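Long-time lurker, first post. I've been practising inverse folding by hand and with some scripts of my own, and I keep getting stuck on stretches where the structure tokens seem ambiguous. Below is the full token string for one chain I'm working on. Before anyone asks, I'm not after the true native sequence, just a reasonable design that respects the backbone. If someone could post their per-position residues I'd love to compare against what I wrote down in my notebook.
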């Protein structure tokens, strides 16, 4: 992957939006990009599990968990499913768990923090809708680029 988010911001200043620097890095991939797929959930990861069992085909799953710090929305089993199904990465506006194991996996994950508790299982939430957090809007079909410097979004593929 030949991109740096800083360079993309310089090259395409009118086409990219940079997310607020609120995320921590997990997984062995510090750099990932792809077409955005979204979920909006609250302390319930059933839809995350369902989505990550689908063929990710190089896409990025953006999970708006409302910024909750009360439970994890992704753990090592779901991260492995993401790897096995070809997802480029995951951005979680919430927490993950099993971070030591995830940090050995060939996936890039950005999340607010870690939390040892699993989420309740109700299956509530929304798929494929615009979500807003970290000062940007994430739309299905737009593109996300993430590296050590942060997360940016664009309405079309840049590179």
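-- Answer (accepted) --
I ran through it position by position. Result:
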């Amino acid at each position: 992957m030949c991109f740096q988010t800083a360079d993309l911001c310089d090259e395409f200043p009118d086409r990219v939006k940079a997310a607020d620097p609120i995320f921590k890095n997990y997984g062995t991939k510090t750099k990932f990009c792809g077409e955005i797929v979204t979920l909006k959930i609250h302390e319930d990861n059933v839809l995350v599990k369902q989505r990550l069992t689908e063929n990710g085909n190089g896409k990025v799953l953006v999970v708006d968990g409302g910024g909750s710090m009360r439970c994890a929305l992704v753990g090592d089993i779901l991260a492995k499913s993401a790897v096995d199904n070809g997802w480029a990465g995951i951005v979680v506006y919430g927490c993950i768990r099993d971070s030591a194991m995830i940090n050995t996996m060939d996936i890039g994950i950005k999340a607010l923090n870690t939390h040892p508790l699993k989420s309740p299982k109700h299956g509530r939430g929304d798929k494929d809708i615009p979500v807003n957090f970290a000062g940007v809007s994430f739309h299905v079909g737009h593109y996300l680029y993430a590296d050590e410097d942060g997360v940016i979004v664009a309405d079309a593929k840049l590179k």
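A couple of notes from the structure itself: The mean pLDDT is 97. The first strand starts at residue 16 and ends at 18. Happy to go over any region you disagree with.
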